[in-house]
Amino acid sequence: MSDTPVQTSATVLTVRQVQDYHAMTLVAPAIAERFRPGQFVAAAVGGAHTARLVRRCFGVHEVKSDYGGTVEVVFADTEPGTGWLAGLRSRDQLDLVGPLGRPFRLPRDPVGCVLTGGGPGAASLFALADTLLRRGCKVHFVLAGPSARQVFGSRMAQRVGDTAAIVTEDGSVGEEGTLDDVLPRVLQETGADVVYGCGPTDLLRTITQIAGELGLPSQVSVEEFLQRTGACGTGLCMTCMLPVHGEDGVTRMVRACADGPVLRGDRVRWSDLGTIPFDALGAPRVLSVTEGGSR
User: In order of start, what are the domains of the chain with their CATH numbers?
Assistant: First the structure.
């Protein structure tokens, strides 16, 4: 099986409302057979004669063998492009490229895994959970959001996970509180060995911080950052750059799409997202008066 992404005309099977989000199932066998958990797809929006050139990137919720191979994505209708996608109907065609990006790294041995998510990004955790469970790992979910309608997959997590903790700010489902109130307890009670995360950037920052304080490795998908900044999904446009420091201590600007979307949480410089830190390799230098000379 090749890891090379493909461009295909996918057939829409269903588009359904799930709480505040839309779940779209597409018949795309070539993408389904290549997919690994954590990768994403890039969809052209607007139709054949549209002026909208920028694709929309979405993590994959699940793949199935139905109809030769289906791919399901979950997204929020937040702007005209996703609004157009939400209006598609069964048998419509969608230009799709995938699977793209680096997937989650999987443990070699059966270990305890905590999968933490929020918003539509949490959908990407379920394909990962399926793979981890087949490897004999223990899977514990922690899903967080402002309210019940913004927590995707709470019932599914309770069904497929060994445990599932749900926390909402308004207490409309699960515990009332925030991720900070629940995740440390779950990590300690489950004896977790690794933490995986996908969702809003602030949530990923919290996951990384809590995991680090407990000495646990974290892998996070910067899918939301990619959706806000990315365009091509293949690394060519260079619009989704973010600062990551390497094992050699040097900060480099990497592409969320091609070098991610899955990154080590402790390597991302969360407070510097959206900037090029002055100490990053290749960062523009600001000349002092003495360096610049007199004019």
Answer: 6-100 (2.40.30.10), 112-272 (3.40.50.80)
Q: What is the pTM of this model?
A: 0.92
Task: From 120, 114, 197, 128, select the one nearest 163 (Cα to Cα).
Answer: 114
Cα distances (angstroms) measured from residue 275 to each of 57, 123, 203, 252, 269: 22, 28, 19, 12, 10
Task: Write out pLDDT tens, residues 241-256.
Answer: 999 999 898 999 999 9
196's CB contacts (< 8 A; 6+ apart) are: 104, 113, 114, 115, 116, 125, 128, 218, 219, 220
What are the helix and strand counts (H, E) for the chain?
8, 15
Per-residue tokens: 158: 């309770």
pLDDT, tens only, 29-78:
999 999 999 999 999 999 888 888 889 999 999 999 989 999 999 999 99
CA atoms of 60 and 56, how far apart (whole Å):
13
What DSSP state is assigned to residue 216? -
Q: What is the rounded distance in angstroms from the CA atom of residue 34 to the CA atom of residue 18?
A: 26
109 CB-side CA count, 13 A = 2
